[in-house]
Amino acid sequence: MSSPGAGFEYPPQEVSWLKRDVLLFAYSIGCIADELHFLYELHPNFQTFPTYSTILPFKQTDQEVIDFYARFSSIPIPGVPKFDSRRVVDGQRTLTFYKPLPPTSAGKIFELRSKVLGVYDKGKPGTVVDTETVLAEKDGDMYTKAVGSAFFVGQGNWGGPKGPSTINYPPPQGKKPEAVHTLQTTKESAHLYRLNGDYNPLHATPESGAKMGFGGAIMHGLFSWNCACHGLLQTLGGSDPANIKEFQARFAAPVKPGDKLVTEAWRTGEYKDGWEEVRFIARVEGGKVVLSNGRALMKCKEVKSKL
Asked: What are phi and psi of 230, to 5 degrees?
């Protein structure tokens, strides 16, 4: 039985980006000088970091700051309550890569096509909205497909279905990770990342986070998610976007500005159509797991752990 709202399609949204945008994104998620093909527009192999498409639902075609709450409260989902976008966090995200993104959208028309997969009532904790978003050229090729969940905090108990259980991908027990990547955030890391186009006040000032029980501002969930993908690609994939096909993780806990993010990855030796499954988690150094259920499909190279 499908959930209320399932199948609802949002109007296609045109999106665009410049070389400057992909440079900023790469720098904001921790790309380093040894990866000049992500950081220098005149590099002969200049490329867009593969997860850049995750920022486009926020940025759209804008080069200016936008009103985050106004933009994301405009289109209600039929058959379910209207949820408060001021109290929403990421739940889980899977991104599949079909074609490399060009360093700029200039000369082509790109659009996001999004639809609701399900809306699930989790009781007092809140409501989960699952969506699928495809990035494609208008009347042309598909580049990425994202399947994600948004968790609307404290907005449950409206009588909706509880939803299916999710598949878990735990790391292997008793085995040391093949790769470890660390990233030290600063008090200003969220302010840098939000310039990509995600201007949620939750990541800029303490008031929103305090109201949601986080005790102040927190890092974007997709910051940690994108940083973990960079960590895997750098340590296991030779920093080559051609070596990753799929990436997913569940948002388990918030990261605070100033925390050190540690991503640990394990090769499984199991392959799907020539791509090896890699399991991973990300944690705050010395503390809680912030990304769980981590799984990627990769073509692994020599391990280069970054400690």
From this structure: -60, -40
Looking at residue 86, its pLDDT comes to 81
Give the Cα separation of 212 and 199 in Å (integer).
Answer: 17
pLDDT value at position 85?
82
Buried b (16+ CB within 10 A) or exposed e, 61-89: eeeeeeebeeebeeeebeebbebebbbbb
The burial of 233, by beta-carbon neighbours within 10 Å (0-12 exposed, 13-18 middle, 19 or more buried), is given as buried
Does the model's pTM come out above 0.85? yes
